[in-house]
Amino acid sequence: MSTLTMHKPAKATKVWFSGKKLFVLLEDGREIGVPLEWFPKLRDADAEDLDKWRLIGDGVGIHWETLDEDLSVQGLLN
User: Fold this and answer.
1) CATH superfamily membership of 12-77
2) Alpha-carbon span 64 to 78, nearest angstrom
């Protein structure tokens, strides 16, 4: 017999940038830091556009309207 375990999706609560990295704080306290080089639209954006992010899907994703860019928290974790 197998048991199916349901888990909650990882959700972001905060986004910030430092140097050439994107950081995301998750609701469980983990922090993810990834190089901006992975995301050309973010890498090439100015600080004003980078700061115009919003959480989507109750925190399962991050959206930048002016940059037409979306990232999923799960994708960052993978």
Assistant:
1) Uncharacterised protein PF10387, DUF2442 (3.30.2020.40)
2) 21
